[in-house]
Amino acid sequence: MKINREQIAAVAIDYQERLIPAMREKEALVKNTSILMEGLRVLDIPICLTQQYTKGLGNTVPEITEAAGTSEFFDKISYSAYEHIESFVKEKSQVILCGMESHICVLQTLIDLRERGFEVILVVDCIDSRKEQDKKYAIERAKAEGAVLTTYEALLFELLGKAGTDEAKKIQKLIK
User: Fold this and answer.
1) Handedness of CA 109, 115, 119, 125 (dihedral sign)
2) Parallel, antiparallel, or unpaired: how do β-strands 119-128 and 94-100 relate?
């Protein structure tokens, strides 16, 4: 399956102030996701943020809102974000997913998207869980559900398509 720039949107799930500290690889998670978000903005890929129970878990961390270029978010209490992002993704056929926790909100959103016919691209170096085993099995389940697994660097270069453009220079600068 080719990832199609014109048919894709990105959803960043629950990168919240009170959740990030509990993640196993929080520094890498925030760094990788920030690069991904900045790269998607360079490529004009629409991005939305979600927050799980904002009152209790806080807002999306500033590094992610700055990289995504937005502090607007869909507030949710359901684990799957689908019902909240449905209007955001409805004109697209592919959805990039990243976020936390990989075995709860990310996975349930992925399953709901797949059930509705979306091709889902899961950015495995931009997801995390508190426990390594939960992340590992979330990735296995995502694969079994038909998601495309990739890394932020591979995804950005696939969306870019060719070198020698202004976009390519900006993406290469982000990756370095």
Assistant:
1) positive
2) parallel
* Inter-residue contact 51 to 74 (CB < 8 Å): yes
The number of distinct structural domains making up the chain is: 1
CATH of the domain at 145: 3.40.50.850
Q: What is the DSSP string of 67-91?
A: HHT----EEESSS--HHHHHHHHTT
Crossing angle (nearest 10°) for helices 166-175 and 152-160: 170
Do residues 54 and 19 touch, judged by C-beta distance below 8 A?
no
Distance, CA of 157 to CA of 175 (rounded, Å): 10
Please write the tens of the pLDDT for every residue from 6-33.
Answer: 999 999 999 999 999 999 999 999 999 9
Which tokens hold the place of 166? 């202004």
Helix, strand, or coil here: 40?
helix
Range of the domain at 31: 5-175
How confident is the model over 74-118, as pLDDT tens digits?
A: 999 999 999 999 999 999 999 999 999 999 999 999 999 999 999
Note the pTM of the prediction, 2 decimals: 0.96
CB 50 within 8 Å of CB 71: no
CA dihedral 24, 25, 26, 31 (to 10 degrees): -170
Beta strands in the chain (DSSP E): 8-13, 47-52, 74-76, 94-100, 119-128, 148-150
